[in-house]
Design a protein that fits this description.
The N and C termini lie far apart (62 Å). The chain has a five-stranded antiparallel β-sheet with strand order 1-2-3-5-4. The protein has one domain: BirA Bifunctional Protein, domain 2, CATH 3.30.930. α3 packs across α9 and α5 crosses α9. By secondary structure, it is of the alpha+beta class. β2 and β3 form a beta hairpin. It is globular, with a radius of gyration of 21 Å.
């Protein structure tokens, strides 16, 4: 007897990669609009199926990151409102598994991307908002304890390092404002993002076991994500309390007026 809905296999094809290569050369609505059914059949549908497969695997090690496939898959449409690059479409398809409680912010999460030449499997905090960046740095600072040593151990984990490597940390050249240059955690405080990633050939999506390759790497990076999200979840709870208090004050003010 089945324990849940049947999860369809992800079936990317050579046509999927062909479409992404062509989209990179013809990134405009005149080309894309008549070919949108091809995009939905060869890329969107198998991507949603892949996310469902990964969600099933994540039930065992990261259930708090599971969201419905349509919410996990990122839009192919670019936000060009504040960009000088007006190309309307991304040249990849991607998915982001956000941590429950951090869905509306960046936070730490799992990431998968397919483009015309490669796939990226990653986990971490990428380009966090200013408040989150500060929260992580304060958590890592030696002035607050030994959390920096715990992060070093997580990043040095051999099981993780065999399949994923540290991402570009976008390091500063001097201690960030509010932190001491002699802080024992300075090398980590200089970072503007933290995480790990693996890059494989795009043709990997054409072979069996794609969902397992991704979920296995996600599983090995779960402890790292748990660590990075700890200060962010605390900050999020404080923000929720502040919003609730402000709403109560407004209500009380309204009643007394």
């Amino acid at each position: 007897m089945s324990n849940g809905p049947k999860v369809l296999p992800a079936t990317f094809s050579a046509e999927s990669l062909k479409f992404l290569r062509a989209l990179k050369r013809n990134n405009d609505r005149a080309w894309f609009d008549p070919r949108k059914p091809i995009y939905e059949r060869t890329l969107k549908t198998p991507m949603l199926a892949l996310i469902e497969q990964i969600n099933q695997a994540m039930l065992d090690f990261a259930p708090e990151y599971i969201r419905p496939a349509p919410k996990t898959m990122m839009r192919i449409y670019r936000d060009v409102r504040f960009s000088s690059d007006k190309r309307p479409y991304k040249s990849n398809i991607a998915a982001w598994w956000a941590r429950a409680g951090l869905e509306k912010t960046s936070g730490g999460g799992f990431y998968f991307e397919l483009n015309a030449t490669s796939i990226t499997i990653a986990a971490g905090v990428y380009m966090p908002e200013r408040e989150q960046l500060l929260a992580i740095r304060q958590y890592l600072s030696a002035a607050g304890g030994n959390h920096h040593q715990a992060l070093r151990e997580l990043l040095a984990d051999k099981k993780l390092n065999t399949v994923m490597q540290p991402i570009d940390l976008l390091k500063l050249t001097r201690a960030p404002k509010g932190f001491q240059p002699d802080d024992a955690a300075l090398d980590l405080l200089l970072c503007r993002q933290w995480g790990v990633a693996a890059t494989l050939p795009a043709e990997t999506v054409l072979k069996p076991g794609l969902a397992r390759k991704i979920s296995d790497r996600f599983k090995r990076a779960t402890s790292l994500l748990t660590f990075l999200n700890t200060p962010l979840l605390g900050a999020s709870r404080q923000e929720d309390k502040a919003v609730s208090a402000a709403a109560m004050n407004r209500s009380l003010f309204g009643l007394s007026s």
